[in-house]
Write a structure and sequence with these properties.
By secondary structure, the chain is an alpha+beta fold. It is built from 6 helices and 3 strands. It has a 3-stranded antiparallel β-sheet with strand order 1-3-2. Strand 2 and strand 3 form a beta hairpin.
């Protein structure tokens, strides 16, 4: 059985306006969309993607929220597991970068080719 990552599942789907998603495709895409459905995670993705240099560590993000560092780290982990963020450990810090492939695949999924 072929197992696709959330990013691969989204990338293989036609735009929603072209043809209906199958039940299986919807189940594979839903984790990525669910990760984005949380306002904190949506803001985190935006903060990371728009951060100088295109990457940020937890220490760069703490002041934007009234949340503990472990809570922010949890949300970053959810975004990473959904394929929306890439991460790289450098010493004691983990740096996050938005996944261009994931964002591009999501853009294609929700695009309207008629526009």
């Amino acid at each position: 059985m072929l197992t696709l990552t959330p990013v691969e599942a989204v990338a293989c789907c036609s735009p929603l306006s072209r043809e209906p998603l199958s039940r299986e495709a919807a189940e594979r895409v839903a984790p990525m969309l669910k990760a984005l459905a949380d306002p904190v995670r949506l803001r985190l993705l935006s903060l990371v993607a728009s951060h100088e240099g295109g990457e940020a560590c937890v220490c760069d993000l703490n002041d934007a929220f009234e949340l503990s560092q472990p809570t922010i780290s949890h949300h970053l982990k959810v975004l990473h597991e959904a394929g929306l963020l890439d991460r790289e450990k450098r010493g004691v810090w983990v740096y996050y970068r938005s996944s261009g492939a994931a964002l591009s695949a999501l853009a294609t999924l929700i695009s309207d080719p008629a526009s």
